Amino acid sequence: MDRNSAEENSRARRVKRNILTNMIVIPLVPLFLAVGISFYYFTTALENSSTNSLKRIVGDHRDMIESFLVERKSDLEMVTRLFDFEKINSSQVIDNMFGVLKTKSGAFIDLGLFDSRGLHVRYSGQYQLTGKLYSDEFWFKEVMEKGRYISDVFLGYRNVPHFIIAVKKGDGKNAWVLRATIDTLYFDRLVSSVRIGTSGEAYILNKKGIAQTGRRSGGVNVMEKDPEFSAFPSSDSSIHTFLKSDHQGVEYLYATTWLKDLEWLLVVRQEKKDAFRFFYYALYASLVIMVLGIAIIVGMSFFMTEKLFMRMEQLGRDKKDLGNQLIRATQLAEVGEMAAGFAHEINNPLQIIRSEYALVVSVLNEMFEKNKISAGDEDIVEIQDSLSQIELQVSRCSDITRAILKFGRKNETRVQLLYPAAEIPEILKMIEQKASVEGIAVFQRISEDLPGFMGDASQFQQVMLNLFNNAIDAVMEQHPDAGGRLDIQAQLKDEKWIEIRVTDNGAGIQPENIEKVFSPFFTTKPVGKGTGLGLSVCYGIIENFGGTMDVTSRENEGTTFIVTLPKAEEKEQDQ
Ligand code: ADP
């Protein structure tokens, strides 16, 4: 037995584990797939959109810087178109022109005029550069050769980082050059004005990787070499994006493009975690969804499995109970059959006693008539008392045997008109003795003219007996010695319904149990005493009769069961 239950337990645990695993794994697969696929597509789209937006910003920024340089060059070309060398070669004209240029753009910081030999003939600005010879300067050679030139940032005579825009007019000995210096601070601000996220920045490098503007986040100042330059893509005019870590290990998303005829490289970069912050939000959201999903699935699986198993265990217990009830019911049926047999057997001797009694009475009467005995004789009186006791007890015995026989015939249901006033007192007789032994007073108030209802007599007897027995049990619990009371009341409730009330002053029903009393197997009685089936069967019987059963109770005060039955139709009443 022990071995069997240990095996059963371990099988139950195995089944439970399997169910739990399946309940967890099966919903997890679609969850992972759904979150994984949506995460992949969502983040790819986000990555593309971050990269594309950086590309767009670089393109716009490049166009803006290019047009700034082109405009400044055009400003100078406009001046060279307006004047020839003789006319412009005057301090006043140069000063005036510088004033005009400054009104066009705050980026100009000085303006100078050079003759074909490279001699700085006129100058308007804050440095003393007039008279200096520039024939060997790189920029001068370039402008003389190409006609226009925009330099990289250099120190020059003034020893301050700057870059120049120079345009040439005329040829050979008549050639002259107009040169303007661009404020590097102004240009720096222009280039770095780009705003992308919190860490986005823009700067310009020349072909050798020397910074033409400073880097906002530091590390590379104007005219310093960018240590990352060698890793940047080689020159072509398209926009490149790539990820790269700096020497401190911070990863950046870069976008680069060449400008100024592939002379300068515009670099825009943004910290990767800043550029892809929405990507990270999506990642966190997916993780949170996943963790929550897993927690809910695991929690629900545990809860459901536990509930399922509790239910299964309950069903198992109910099954066992049902088996036991069945065995007990079979035993009861057998006892019932035996009781019916006994009753039948006892009936015959009772008939004989009764006829013998009748014989004794008639002999006594005869003896009276013949004056053999006198009515006042003490012995005779005693005999007469004994005889009436015999008559009383014999008729009680036959009542009981009749009731047992009636109860035993329960399988053949026969619906007939039943009158409470006739049926109830009969049934009460069966428990009267038990009640009086227990000191319980039984009262009945049944209207004699109460109409009948349609039902099976033995089933009705079963219902009433069950109610009376339950009431006696409850009363015995509350009043073990005396003071118990059982009231049976039957009356017309309204023109359609008959109401039978069985009231006791017993222990009552606890409020939390009141809903359960009609449920099968609900019992508060000790094992072996109560089956918990009585009231549920009664309920079914009364429902079959077309009626209802109800209960009201107060703990420690008493209980009333109310059976409501439909009054039989007029034509049925007459049967
Ligand atoms: P059983 O009598 O076998 O327990 P029943 O279905 O007849 O089964 O009754 C179910 C339960 O209802 C009882 O165990 C008892 O707790 C409660 N009960 C029934 N009648 C009364 C009553 N008159 N007073 C108090 N409790 C009652």
User: What small molecules does this complex bind?
Assistant: adenosine-5'-diphosphate
The largest sheet has its strands arranged as 2-1-5-4-3
Uncertain spans, ≥5 residues at pLDDT below 50?
none
The number of helices is: 12
Q: What is the CATH architecture descriptor of the domain at 412-574? A: 2-Layer Sandwich
The level of helicity is 40-55%
SSE sequence, one letter per element:
HHHEEHEEEHEEEEHHHEHEEHEEHEEH
CATH superfamily of the domain at 412-574: Histidine kinase-like ATPase, C-terminal domain
Major beta sheet, specifics? Answer: 5 strands, antiparallel
How would you describe what is shown here?
The protein is α+β, with helices and mostly antiparallel strands. The chain has a domain at 412-574: Histidine kinase-like ATPase, C-terminal domain (Heat Shock Protein 90, 2-Layer Sandwich). It contains twelve helices and 16 strands. The chain has helices at 2-82, 85-88, 91-104, 138-146, 184-192, 272-275, 277-369, 378-408, 420-437, 457-478, 534-544, 570-573; strands spanning 108-115, 120-124, 148-150, 163-169, 176-182, 201-206, 240-245, 251-259, 264-271, 415-418, 440-446, 453-456, 484-492, 497-504, 548-554, 558-566. β8 (251-259) and β9 (264-271) form a beta hairpin. α7 (277-369) packs antiparallel against α8 (378-408) and α9 runs parallel beside α10. Adenosine-5'-diphosphate binds at residues 466, 470-471, 474, 504, 506-509, 517, 522-525, 530-536, 559.
